[in-house]
Every structure is written in C-alpha cells, then in structure tokens.
Design goal:
Chain A contains 15 helices and no strands. Chain A has 312 residues and is mostly helical. Classes of the chains: A mainly alpha (312), B alpha/beta (247).
Chain lengths: 312, 247
Amino acid sequence: MSILEFLTDLFNPDLRFLPKALLISVMSAVVCGVVGCFVVLRGMAFIGDAVAHAVFPGLAVAFVLQGSLVLGGAVAGIITAVLVAVFSQNRRLKEDSVMGVFLVGSFALGVVIISRAPGYAGSLQQFLFGSITGIPDSDVVVVAVAAVVVLGLAFALHKEFVVVTLDREMARAMGLSVFWLDIVLYVMVTLAVVISIQTIGNILVLALLITPAATARLLTDRLGVMMTLGPLIGGLSALVGLYLSWTYDYPTGGTIVLVSTAVFLLAWTLAPRHGLVATWRSARRQPDDAGLDDGVTVVGGDRRSPALDAGR
Amino acid sequence: MTVLQVEDVSVALGGRTVLRDVDLSVEAGEFVGLIGPNGAGKTTLLRTVLALVRPSAGSVLVQGRRARPGAPGVGYVPQRHEFAWDFPISIEQTVMTGLVGRQGLFRRPSASDWRLVADALDRVGMAHLRTRPVGELSGGQRQRVLVARALALHPSVLLLDEPFTGLDMPTQELLSDLFTRLAGEGTAVLMTTHDLLEALARCGRLVLLNRTVVADAPPDRLRDPELWVRTFGLSERSPLLAFLTAA
C-alpha cells in the first residue's frame, strides 16, 4: 500500500478507528519517549515492567464494570507504584524483590478478575497484545490529558529528577524530598504505560518505554538532545509501525515495537565512539582541544596526565 | 570565626550507638582531617552535619544556626562512586545542579547562576573543560567537578568524604593543593580520609575519631602512639607507629 492510500484510509469515514489509533499510538509513544529517558538513565527498566503488569487488574476491573480502561489501569498502577515505594523503605528487601512480589501478584489478580467476565479469552488477547479497533472517543481525550499532565510534570521537575538520578544523597542534602520525587516519577511511568496499553498491549508496552530512550542514549552525551530524540524516535516508530501493520495486516503493537527495535539496532551499529559518527566527531573535535585529549581517559580510568595542569 | 560547631552529638542508627559525645568545631580558613578506621562513624558525622541523620543528643550548628537539609553554607562532596558518571551531562551542567536547591520549579538558570558556575569551575581549574561530558573524565577531574558543584553556592564549610580514594599520588597532591587553597580563601574544610600521609602533611588539625573523638590537635602534637593505638586498634608492632614516632 502506498503512503497515499494510507492517507486516504485515514480520512475514510468507515475507518474512523484508524486516525484515532494513530493519534493515540503517537501520543503515547512520545510520552513514553520522554519518561523513558529517566527510566533508562536510572536503570529502572524493571520498574517499567512491574508497572506494566501492575495495571492489569485495573484494566480487568474496568473491563468487567464497563468503565474507562485508562482510568482503571491508572488507579491500579498508581496504587502498586506507591506500595513499591513504601515497601522499598524496608532495607531487608531490595527494591527489585519488592517489585517482583507486587508485579506478579497484581498480574495474577487481573487474570482472576478478568476470568469472571463473559467471553474473556478475546479481551485477554486484546489487553496483552493491543488492538487498534474499539477505542472509544473519550479515550482520545483521556490520553491527551494524561499526556499533557506527564509532559508538564517532566518539564516542571526536570532539574530535580536530574539531581536525584545523579546522586540521591546529594539530593537529600539539598533538601529535596527524594521519596516524593520517586513517587511522582513512578506515577508518570504508570500514566505513560496506561495510555500506551490500548494500542501496544500489556506485554509489549515496556518496549515503548525503554527502546526509544535507550536508542537516544546511544546517539548522544547531552541530556537535552536525548530527551528530544527519545520521543521523536518513539513517535516515528509508532507512525511507521502503524502504517506497516495496516498495509501488511501485521499486529499493530508487534510491528511498532519491531520498528523501534530496528532503529535501536541501527543506532547501535552507528553509535558514537564506536561507529562512523564517532570517527567524524572526534576528527572534528581535534582542533579545539588540541593537547588536552591526553587528559581524558576511558570511563572508569584514573589515569593522570601532564595535560591536567594545562588550564591552571 | 567558628563556622561549624558540633556539640555533644550522639547518633544511634538502628538501635546501635554509632557516635557518642562528639565535640568538634571548625574555624573559617581551617583544613581539618577526620581520621579513623572503617566503621568509626566518619561518614555518619558528615551526614549529621548535613542533617541527613538526626542526632539522638547534642546539636550541630552551622554559622550559628541549627543544621537542616538544604541549609545554605554547607558544601558537600560525596565519595566519587556515589555519583552516576554514566549520566549524559556536561561538566558545567553538573556544577549547575549544585544550585537546584535555591532555584524554583520551571526556573531556568539565570545569568548570575551561570556566573556562579563559571566561578566555581575556575576555582578548581576545570573551566577549560566545561562542556565535556562527565563520563569522559579521569578520577581526579571527576573529584574536582564534585568539588566545583559544592563550591557553586560559596559554602562557608566544605565537607569532603574520602576525596583521595582510588587516586594516584600526583592527583592527590593536586587535590590537596586545591583544598589548601580553598581553606586559604577562608572556607572551613573538613575532610575524611584514609590517607594518613596526605592528612599529616596538609591538614592544619587532625581529629582522630572512633565512635567518639579520641584526639583533636595539629599533626605535630599527635606523636603519642597511644592515641593511634586507641583510634585504630593497632598492634604495637605496626609500622605506622614506628613511622609516626620517628617523624
């Protein structure tokens, strides 16, 4: 199918679900791309996984009660996120064990709840792997509002999140409330996951959170650039993925994730420091810092060179 | 002028007494070494000054005011491994994070914030590398970036936690020069270290700590082997004692 035919289908009144699915996929991918940067930088991919599983009972309850899936998932996810943050204060258990307990527990609760709904096998598959049909109009609004809230929080608390990620002890010494900042970040992850589940599905949503942000990290050493590239790569992957899935009749969630995985592999191959881009950059940098490169060592190295004194 | 005043401080962590009746004061312009074995409570004492640990008794005063998190006047340089060096951030942005406590939500760094950052980088001799990603720096450079972050707000007391660990001798010397200079500019510097040689040579005063203050005097008045035996639990055959009494 050509791009033109895809555009025609987008505006076909009989296919009204298609532009809605596209809008939701791209919005959620953009939000995941931003939140994912902190998930990747803090090494909390497992938290993303835990939250993705934890929203399941909320989806199940909302499904059984015919309520809003986004709202149900958000409530369940936030409850679990707060429980993880609170239980992690107990130093006997490491955070990942606490999350392990809650993610499986809540997922199991979801499985049991949804089994009470008639015809649950089909809806279970829809939850797990996503679907582009059957999205109510109201969800577009809910997703848009959630997106604005999450991006607003990311913007408002950017400096604080950076400090906490760099050095938690220092953040405490500065008088920041590390506990509450953690909770806010968990809630942001939850919202990002919940708004993505509709189209991507419960199992694959982690990819939207991790892959674009990880790809962006490979490409830059600048946080600002990373936080621009992450949502850009996510949004484009969603767009291209939906197009491919519509054209070749592939499952949407799977296709979007495969596209972003392909971008990741591409970035890995051409990554700075190890690929073509790196060679070009270091060649360009030579003139500015002539004589100083000697003072730079590989990460983890503690070598000192006479160049250290150059600027003193 | 007394900048840091620790009075009769006791700290219990998890029901265990970690510090007992600690008295310590640091004047402006002093470079004080805090010496003691692992588990002596050195880091706990620094955390108490930062008000991250609440003492069960006694008080900590910084410039005459009770210590509290985020209080102006205290600069803290944590151990190097506490910092996420793989974070994609430049040197100057890292130093800028030292100002976050006084910046409000949504606020972007102002021109005067950037001046503070430039000034701090100048003082540690890292201005020429300010746009470098921190991941590319050597150990000594990393330590100087952390010092610059602590200096950005012009603290009156600078707390250094094991700044020499894992660094070679020339780099230690470079940092010692820096700390001596900062003290010379009027900052009260309190440093924990396991590097006795550097501390004996550079610090104007040493505080020997093992749960409580065993001794508090200039290095040349700490020749009594008994003090070192009590602080570190050394045996009488320890080469350190031979060195200290011979020097």
